[in-house]
Amino acid sequence: MYPCGVEVRVLSPAPKFMNSLIDKIYDQLKADEDKARLKAAYNFAIKAHKGQFRQSGDKYSSHPIAVAARLWQLYQDLDLTIAGLLHDTIEDCEEVAIENIYKKFGPVAGFLVDSVTKRRGYFYQHEEIIEDHIERLLWAGQKDVRVILLKLADREHNIGTVDHVPEHKQVRMAFETQAIYEPLRRALNFGKVSSVKTAAKRYHSLLANYHNADPKALKEKIFGESFKNFKTDLFNEVYTKSHNVTWEITDRKLFDSLCRDESFAKNTQLSSLWTDGKNFKAHFRFLGAKIIEGARLEVASYYQ
Fold this sequence. Notes:
By secondary structure, the protein is mainly alpha-helical.
């Protein structure tokens, strides 16, 4: 209290954003240019996802914010964090073009967002045309491991909120997480504070173990290997709510590879097998699965 009787209160600085997670990242940045880039990415994501909501009822922007915060916590890499904020803007916002991401946020963040965007067979600044989403992801990861780290953070948050999505999507997410993302998470030691450089070394070590296989062969090898470390707990939660979940494989080599794996054979039941000598189709289900009303899932949908 001043002598004149006027009470003076020291107020806390106003938040730079309407989100404490992004505020914390902003405060750790030193360069004004970096702060400006983070602020621009945050505002871009908020505007792009305006009016969109998650199945939980939360604003959709809560998802990219959580992904970005997680990536910063683990790697403190600004381009990766910015890509976390922007990773769904192309896929979920028709008015946003990939060239705008490259132009506004640079080639690194642009490439990361480009690489994890589904339904894009081509890359904006690369000649490669890869229609399969997983093969595209694995190819891009060889160029920049941050592509894989971004996708793992995205999947980690989505799995953490899986209760809010329809039951048939819960089963699909659990399966594809087990088949591809869980092996990648283990290989890169994702979830432990590290550096992008260390993650890159671990990814290239994984590639070397598979004799630097092309993306298609690498996908098949990872898919098969995943069942050697089969985690039934990843499926239990959704399986208690669902039944008669049928999966389809149309790749004969992949199917033959899986059948040679004892873990896969022990945990699945073959429903049907068909071939005309040229085309191939096999249906199977995981043992213990229960039914989803009128729903039928296909492994093929996982590769899209």
